[in-house]
Amino acid sequence: MNKEVKMNVYRFDPNKDKEGKFQEFTVPVKEGMVVLDAVHYIENNMDPTLGVRWNCKAARCGSCAAEINGKPSLMCKTRVDSLGDKIHVAPMKAFPIVKDLVTDVSRNWEIARKIPEFTPKKGLKEPWQIAEIDVSRSREFRNCIECFLCQDVCHVIREHDKDYIGPRFMVKAASLDTHPLDSINRSKFLHEEGGAGYCNITKCCQSVCPEHIAITDNAIIPEKESIVDSYYDPVTMLFKKIRGKHGQ
Ligand code: SF4
Ligand code: SF4
């Protein structure tokens, strides 16, 4: 184990600086140290003005999402001894910077509000009862901690900012669509407003998810298949023509 590590931390204050730059700090390494510990060491011992957002330090809140040596990762879950003796820590590139490592992820909350909400089937008797086997399909999606690392790595979000809701919200839609008591079809929303067609299934989002959610395999691909069924399947199209709406 190295005794110390060079931490190159991105610094940028939009209220003062024209552009950001990396600043190097030398930090003593302790057994089991994670990148967030090293950033806290800098904040507590070298520069208290360093901007960093964190909360649980247990990979449950998603607050300390950043780019570590170029890879979207949680600072609290990334061991210093897994990275060599020089570490670069930068804020998520897909979102505006508030200060240093802190980004403004509020656009994600705006997208969240647009997803058609859980709509239970009519006439359900209370208490609602769901068989365990029916719960299991959506359980994986409910593990999402909303770190937005998948949004950060998605090239569509980076390039077409306003057109695609992003992988986190494809997961959210899949979570609702696979709920056994939900009654609506979100294909129309995902196709016409959500920009699902922009996703070209590169799986970059899936590769960075700290909860190991199979974002593309289990959420995006089935949602895309559902869109194809709703819009282009001749039987469904005839059915919709008769009912006059998109499969609802
Ligand atoms: S698979 Fe789709 S959502 Fe995931 S990173 Fe690639 S384009 Fe974005
Ligand atoms: S799907 Fe995974 S990467 Fe995306 S926000 Fe949720 S936990 Fe984070």
From TrEMBL:
<dbReference type="InterPro" id="IPR004489">
    <property type="entry name" value="Succ_DH/fum_Rdtase_Fe-S"/>
</dbReference>
<dbReference type="Pfam" id="PF13183">
    <property type="entry name" value="Fer4_8"/>
</dbReference>
<keyword id="KW-0479">Metal-binding</keyword>
<dbReference type="GO" id="GO:0005886">
    <property type="term" value="C:plasma membrane"/>
</dbReference>
<dbReference type="GO" id="GO:0006099">
    <property type="term" value="P:tricarboxylic acid cycle"/>
</dbReference>
<dbReference type="InterPro" id="IPR009051">
    <property type="entry name" value="Helical_ferredxn"/>
</dbReference>
<dbReference type="Pfam" id="PF13085">
    <property type="entry name" value="Fer2_3"/>
</dbReference>
<dbReference type="GO" id="GO:0051539">
    <property type="term" value="F:4 iron, 4 sulfur cluster binding"/>
</dbReference>
<protein>
    <submittedName>
        <fullName>Succinate dehydrogenase and fumarate reductase iron-sulfur protein</fullName>
    </submittedName>
</protein>
<dbReference type="GO" id="GO:0009055">
    <property type="term" value="F:electron transfer activity"/>
</dbReference>
<comment type="similarity">
    <text>Belongs to the succinate dehydrogenase/fumarate reductase iron-sulfur protein family.</text>
</comment>
<comment type="pathway">
    <text>Carbohydrate metabolism; tricarboxylic acid cycle.</text>
</comment>
<dbReference type="InterPro" id="IPR012675">
    <property type="entry name" value="Beta-grasp_dom_sf"/>
</dbReference>
<keyword id="KW-0001">2Fe-2S</keyword>
<keyword id="KW-0004">4Fe-4S</keyword>
<keyword id="KW-0411">Iron-sulfur</keyword>
<feature type="domain" description="2Fe-2S ferredoxin-type">
    <location>
        <begin position="3"/>
        <end position="93"/>
    </location>
</feature>
<dbReference type="InterPro" id="IPR017896">
    <property type="entry name" value="4Fe4S_Fe-S-bd"/>
</dbReference>
<dbReference type="InterPro" id="IPR025192">
    <property type="entry name" value="Succ_DH/fum_Rdtase_N"/>
</dbReference>
<dbReference type="GO" id="GO:0051537">
    <property type="term" value="F:2 iron, 2 sulfur cluster binding"/>
</dbReference>
<dbReference type="GO" id="GO:0016491">
    <property type="term" value="F:oxidoreductase activity"/>
</dbReference>
<dbReference type="GO" id="GO:0046872">
    <property type="term" value="F:metal ion binding"/>
</dbReference>
<dbReference type="InterPro" id="IPR001041">
    <property type="entry name" value="2Fe-2S_ferredoxin-type"/>
</dbReference>
<keyword id="KW-0408">Iron</keyword>
<dbReference type="GO" id="GO:0022904">
    <property type="term" value="P:respiratory electron transport chain"/>
</dbReference>
<dbReference type="InterPro" id="IPR050573">
    <property type="entry name" value="SDH/FRD_Iron-Sulfur"/>
</dbReference>
<dbReference type="InterPro" id="IPR036010">
    <property type="entry name" value="2Fe-2S_ferredoxin-like_sf"/>
</dbReference>
<dbReference type="InterPro" id="IPR006058">
    <property type="entry name" value="2Fe2S_fd_BS"/>
</dbReference>
<keyword id="KW-0560">Oxidoreductase</keyword>
